């Protein structure tokens, strides 16, 4: 099993990233699809537009955002299981665009995926 890692999409792609999944619902500004070097763009496991808009990357909302996002992910069990299967055989990197490296959806998703591996 490979631990699932996270990385800002604005960081340079590396071969060690393995299977690269963008986990944002909207395309990141300033990144071309060619330069993103994605294996997939998975909007299904990204937070809903309503939740993302409400959160607005405000630190005081992160704890509640985490709870609400986990509830949304309960509806995506097939996608969660598929990603876990990928991580059983290769490195998986979750990509996000947020400027905040400590408070974003990729951290929540990473914790869920790595806890259940």
Average residue pLDDT: 94
The residue ranges in which pLDDT falls below 50 over 5 or more consecutive positions are none
Structural Rg: 13 Å
The H-and-E topology, N to C, reads as: EEHEHHHEH
- Helix segment count? 5
Principal-axis shape equals: globular
The level of helicity is 40-55%
Number of strands: 4
Estimated structural class: alpha/beta
How far the N terminus sits from the C terminus, by CA atoms, comes to 8 Å
**Tally of separate domains:** 1
Beta-sheet strand percentage? 5-15%
Please give the order of strands in the largest beta sheet: 1-4-2-3
Largest sheet: 4 strands, parallel
Describe the structure.
With 117 residues, the chain is α/β, with parallel strands linked by helices. It has one domain (5-115). It contains 5 helices and 4 strands; from the N terminus they run E-E-H-E-H-H-H-E-H. It has helices spanning 33-36, 49-55, 62-73, 77-89, 105-115; strands at residues 5-8, 19-22, 40-41, 92-96. A 4-stranded parallel beta sheet has the order 1-4-2-3. The longest helix has 13 residues, at 77-89. It is globular. The model has no long low-confidence stretch (mean pLDDT 94).
Features:
single chain, 117 residues, 4-stranded parallel β-sheet, 4 strands, alpha/beta
């Amino acid at each position: 099993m490979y631990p699932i890692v996270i990385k800002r999409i604005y960081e340079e792609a590396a071969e060690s990233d393995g299977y690269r999944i963008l986990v944002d619902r909207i395309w990141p500004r300033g990144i071309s699809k060619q330069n993103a070097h994605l294996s997939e763009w998975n909007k299904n496991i990204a937070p809903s537009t309503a939740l993302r808009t409400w959160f607005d990357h405000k630190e005081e909302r992160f704890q509640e955002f985490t709870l609400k996002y986990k509830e949304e992910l309960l509806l995506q069990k097939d996608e969660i299981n598929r990603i876990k299967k990928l991580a059983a055989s290769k490195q998986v990197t979750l990509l996000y665009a947020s400027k905040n490296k400590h408070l974003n959806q990729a951290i929540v998703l990473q914790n869920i995926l790595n806890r259940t591996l």
